[in-house]
Amino acid sequence: LKALGWGDSHHRHFEQLSNRIERTETLVPARVAALERGAVVVLGAGGDPRSFAVARDGRSRRDGLDAPAVGDWVALRASAGELVVEHVLPRSSYFVRKEAGRRTAAQMVAANVDRVLVVTAIGDDLSPGRIERYLAAIWAGGAEPVVVINKRDRPHDTAEVRAIVQASAPGVQVVSTSTVTDGGTDELTPLLVPGSTIALVGSSGVGKTSLLNRLLGDGQLATGAVREGDDKGRHTTTRRELHWLPSGALVIDTPGMREFGLWDAGAGLSAAFADIEELAARCRFTDCTHAHEPECAVLEALERGVLLPDRLARYHRLAREIAHVEARAGERPGREGKQRVKNIARGMRERLKINRKLGLKDW
Ligand SMILES: Nc1nc2c(ncn2[C@@H]2O[C@H](COP(=O)(O)OP(=O)(O)OP(=O)(O)O)[C@@H](O)[C@H]2O)c(=O)[nH]1
Ligand SMILES: [Mg+2]
Ligand SMILES: [Zn+2]
């Protein structure tokens, strides 16, 4: 199961479950690879990590964040010739968003992910605000973010694009790729650690599935052309799915997101904007609004040009959005190590502080 990403905490939770139930019943762990009209497609149920099996969700009332999601570890029970999902094991990390549309509900995009790759592309999709939004969600879910700038074969100013993206992603690894040039995906290779799980997220048409096809080496998954004029994709991928790579890494491909709303991402926002929070901690007044106060470190940074006014405005906007959704929502994703996210945010602030002292530029 280790090959499928089974970790110590999953093992511990599974043991606890197995001890609680009667001896005659045996639970089998498996990993959710896809969801299909009421059925749960799992990997590893028969002991062979590469063989698929189809299970039924034992609790039809399970809804929202309690329902099995792609990437979840579940405990199955064999009953009358069929496999039934009895439990969803606590997630070690996740990537969650607010459901598109007006409903205030959470949607689990991918569970138990080590890294989430925000894919964007040279062209109309490239937007600092979009990247920041994704990063806040990724940090909040306890995964490590990476920004992928795809379609680097298109004409662009490499240094300028890098600078724009890195300013929105302080302390985050940024790689550039192309699925149409030789060696265009080499920068991704070090990320493909055997047994680790990576999720690909981003807008439709940026090339998530094209990247996966390159990594798979067989190019079998469907990709679709972008529209002329606005460079938007046609939502070619329609479901989330976990894939094996020849390297032994696991990759979750997801459908392009039209709207991406934040969910319970307060701590993630602190990590994504650690540069601003670190500055704010040095203002003279602890309740500084960074609007007119004297000895305001944020305003000073704006004046010196090390902080862009747009980035500050986006930070405030996202903070308001998070507060607004939080006021209306009850449900919180269950995950171990919420404290860890807070520690990451603190760690990033510390690192940026040291970088500043050393005169290194990290944003
Ligand atoms: N020029 C260029 N085109 C690319 C590259 N990668 C992908 N494309 C093209 O971009 C279009 C969209 O690619 P997909 O892989 O389907 O995009 P996606 O992100 O999976 O889109 P959805 O499944 O709709 O979310 C296709 O026409 C690809 O051939 C690249 O590196 N360079
Ligand atoms: Mg796709
Ligand atoms: Zn201030």
Tell me what you see in this structure.
The structure is a single chain. The protein is of the alpha/beta class and 363 residues long. The chain is built from 9 helices and 13 strands. The chain has a 6-stranded mixed sheet with strand order 10-9-8-11-13-12, sandwiched between helices. The two termini are 40 Å apart. It binds guanosine-5'-triphosphate (GTP), magnesium ion and zinc ion. The site of zinc ion (ZN) has 8 residues, from helix 7. Residues 208-209, 236-237 line the site of magnesium ion (MG).
Keywords:
single chain, 363 residues, alpha/beta, six-stranded mixed sheet, five-stranded mixed beta barrel, 9 helices, 30% helix, globular, binds guanosine-5'-triphosphate, binds magnesium ion, binds zinc ion
Describe the strand arrangement of the main beta sheet, using strand numbers. Answer: 10-9-8-11-13-12
Number of strand elements: 13
Large-scale geometry: globular
Low-confidence stretches: none
Mean pLDDT: 88
Strand content: 15-25%
Q: Can you write the helix and strand succession as a string?
A: HEEEEEEEEHEHEEHEEHHHHH
Q: Work out the helix count.
A: 9
Tell me about the biggest sheet?
A: 6 strands, mixed
N-C termini distance: 40 Å
Secondary-structure-derived class = alpha/beta
For the CA atoms, what is the radius of gyration?
21 Å
Helix content: 25-40%
Hetero compounds: guanosine-5'-triphosphate, magnesium ion, zinc ion
